[in-house]
Design brief:
Elements lengths: L1 H18 L3 E2 L27 H12 L11 H4 L14 E2 L2 E2 L27 H5 L20 H9 L2 H11 L6 H13 L7 H6 L14 H11 L12 E2 L4 E2 L51 H9 L28 H12 L5 H4 L15 E2 L14 E4 L6 E6 L4 E7 L4 E7 L2 E5 L6 E9 L4 E8 L3
Parallel strand pairs: 1-6
Antiparallel strand pairs: 2-3, 4-5, 7-8, 8-11, 9-10, 9-12, 12-13
Length: about 475
């Protein structure tokens, strides 16, 4: 009990220190090159590679209450770092009421097998997901309906904030704010949230594969691991849907037998087919980070195990995943013993790390009064003594990029993210550069004048 209290106090103190954090543009956190285990093979980045500058912008957007219509709600209001970026409440508070579903944990979203997002998978990518809550009437209020302002109104507001002029130029090479750029930045920051310092990871590093006993596990935890991994008749078959070592939901999963609607007893919703990773279900003290399932109806891991041990037979559920049925198509009955149930719970608790809860790179950069401090910032995107006009549009680009300047005759060089020269041309102050054959990712456009001055801009080649 004493150790638990000390851990809680430490987390609170760290949280207090982070409140007054400063964005130092000359000393960025490492988002782009974080270590993760070799056995993690899933990666849904898909053309939006994490860049320290853009992820830094994403961090500010994630925590900024200016992104809600009344200035009271940010993404972090519903996805709280101390709770593995989930909400301890069943429903989250929005600007116009309560959310319809429980806020999903944002742990290892980059390493998910299923690339669609939201419980009902309505967002095809994480990029697409990031701005939907902003444009939701209940959540953040820039819906353009019910008398709400529009996303264009929000962008106008963000353009009036000096720190976004600095951060967008720092990230993209100019101050233009678009929904696409917001999506890229938010997705990069969210994908950077990773947790691979659990006791499971420590154990797997000591053996050849997950099927053998882990030397750092108790007999109960190893029993739970075997039950989780092995199919029914030998185990519980959990790994059929929640694939180790990412423990993310498999692609094309269906309803899991929970058909409730948060805050609406007796209502039925069969559209929920997505789930977050099973990592960090509990915090380092063993307490549940948040209620479980889309409707927040489960408040312990034992309830989850009991549910899958005997799936309720709801006549209305026409969308139950076939892996949760028996040979007759009826909901599964695993007949687990109490010992086996507790072993599964013990194993699930080994999937919790610690860094994600306290690492400053994922913390709130705003002061309590809503202000933010940005220091540094020669920006590293231009050299020389003049203040030129340089425009590269569109950015991100799919095919042709238009370069316009006030610098006269130019030498234009295109480099990839590794610094390799890919293209060179001489041009006047207006020219086009073809990116259609380039792979998606980050590129640098170096512009040199006849007087020897040089300027470098970033451009992203989009994959969608």
């Amino acid at each position: 009990m004493e150790k638990k209290l000390i851990n809680i106090i430490a987390i609170l103190l760290l949280g207090y220190l982070f409140v007054s954090a400063t964005i130092d543009l000359d000393n960025l956190f490492n988002y782009a090159n974080q270590d993760f285990p070799d056995y993690i093979t899933e990666d849904n980045t898909d053309g939006n590679a994490i860049d320290d500058r853009t992820a830094t912008l994403g961090r500010v957007l994630f925590y900024d209450k200016n992104l809600s219509s009344d200035g009271t709600i940010s993404c972090a209001s519903c996805h709280i770092q101390a709770h593995a970026f989930s909400d301890p409440n069943i429903q989250s508070v929005g600007v116009n009421g309560l959310t319809g579903r429980h806020s999903m944990r944002l742990v290892n979203p980059r390493f998910s097998h299923e690339e669609h997002f939201f419980w009902d998978e309505r967002a095809a990518t994480l990029e697409n997901q990031t701005t939907q809550p902003i444009q939701d009437h209940i959540e953040m209020g820039f819906s353009g309906t019910n008398g709400d302002a529009t996303l264009a109104d929000l962008i106008d507001h963000l353009e009036s904030l000096d720190y976004y002029n600095t951060l967008f130029e720092f990230s993209f090479g100019d101050t233009e704010i678009t929904e696409n750029r917001m999506q890229l930045a938010l997705a990069q920051f969210i994908r950077s949230m990773q947790s691979f310092d659990s006791r499971f990871d420590e154990g797997l590093a000591q053996v050849d594969h997950t099927g053998v006993p882990f030397p750092n596990f108790t007999p109960q935890e190893n029993m739970g691991k075997s039950l989780f991994i092995n199919t029914p008749f030998e185990g519980a078959g959990c790994a059929d849907c929640h694939i180790p070592p990412e423990f993310s939901i498999t692609v094309n999963s269906q309803n899991n037998g929970v058909i409730g609607v948060a805050g609406m007893p007796g209502e039925v919703d069969l559209t929920n087919t997505r789930a977050p990773t099973l990592r960090d279900l509990v915090n380092p003290n063993g307490d549940l980070n948040s209620p479980l399932m889309h409707d927040g109806s489960f408040t312990s891991l034992l309830q989850v195990v009991n549910h899958y041990n005997a799936i309720p037979d709801h006549p209305e559920n026409t969308n139950l995943d076939s892996r949760l049925t028996d040979f007759n198509g009826d909901p599964q009955q695993l007949n687990l013993t109490d010992e086996q149930k507790l072993a599964l719970v013990a194993f699930l608790e080994t999937l919790t790390g610690s860094d994600i809860y306290t690492n400053e790179k994922w913390s709130d950069p705003f002061d309590p009064d809503g202000s933010i401090t940005i220091i540094g910032g020669t920006l590293g995107i231009s050299e020389g003594s003049v203040n030129p006009f340089i425009s590269i549009t569109p950015n991100p680009v799919r095919d042709m990029a238009r370069i316009e300047t006030n610098l006269g005759l130019l030498k234009i060089q295109i480099y990839d993210a590794s610094g390799k020269l890919l293209h060179f041309k001489e041009a006047d102050s207006r020219t086009n550069v073809d990116f259609s054959a380039r792979a998606s990712g980050l590129y640098f456009v170096k512009i040199e004048t006849t007087e020897g001055e040089s300027f470098t801009k970033k451009i992203l080649k989009a994959s969608y």
